[in-house]
Amino acid sequence: MQVPLIDLKTQYAQIKPEIDEVVAQVLSSGEFIGGNIVEEFEQQFAKASNVKHCISVANGTDALYIALIALGITEGDEVITTASSWISTASTILKVGARPIFVDIETDHYTIDTGLIEEKIGDRTKAILPVHLYGQMADMAHIKSICVKHNLFCVEDSAQGHFAQLHDKMPGQIGDIATFSFYPTKNLGAYGDGGSIITNDDEIARKCSKLANYGIIQSDEKIVIGGNSRLDTLQAAILQVKLKYANTWIEKRIAHAKKYDNLLQNLDQVTVPKVREGSRHTYYTYVIRCERRDELKAHLQEHGIATAIHYPYILPLRADLAFLKYKADGFPIATQCQNEILSLPMYAELTNEQISHIADCICNFYN
User: Fold this and answer.
1) pTM above the 0.90 mark?
2) Does domain 8-242 have CATH number 3.40.640.10?
């Protein structure tokens, strides 16, 4: 049995008539940049996220970059963030001239360890940038309280957190700003690149909108020239269709995760994902920690099961960030996890037979 890591072909087949119809409408309209379709999607995503403003952009990395600029993060500033994330989290901080200050992760939930944040705050700290990882939100109540106490901005990297919840709050409802990626594999994914910024702050929204569309922001005699970061009309139309199904697909992911949990929970060599109290984990990925990870990965591949490692190197130890001079002993939990984590197939269209096959192969490997 062949089981891909994600199956976008099957997803498309299920909504093909609707997708084909909106694609044809856009192509026949001749309106490929901006327009009502983009504005409608922004309004719909803002409403679905329970926030006032959504500014669509070209991709998730642009979303983070524009958000940091809009908040005035610049040369010489410091931004506290997690040690475990995709490179965009760190590269956007560096791109605006600031320095990423990495913090180790929690053992159970793999997001930033909020108990270690305050010791990293200094005179140059301007923001905390938590990452909602694998579909689960960071401990935002604690992070927000730290931001208020120290007068810091809070930027939520929610590239993996579409419609996750913590105590009935979604990304963008707690921090000053939240950013999203609509990369095809995401829980809400386009058929190409895309991203967005959401916020309840009118002035932040105005700045982000201008910065994404060539505008000039003038503040305290400093002028920041905007760029060109737009969500294509075609992608907005596709996302409008998929937005209608997003929560149904997420509920299926949650059900699949419970099946995985039940089938793998008795293996001493495997740790299944743990859900934070009061959290809605949306399982962008289903990540286990396991002994002999690389051998297990090869074993599953031999049996037709695709897996991935998110991520093989934590940010402080990446070769391209070596100039920051971080060491592994400063991040013991993240360093251990990078050698143990493995992402199993996870998507709404998974079948019970596929999940059972995957679990059987894992159990057979260890028994």
Assistant:
1) yes
2) yes
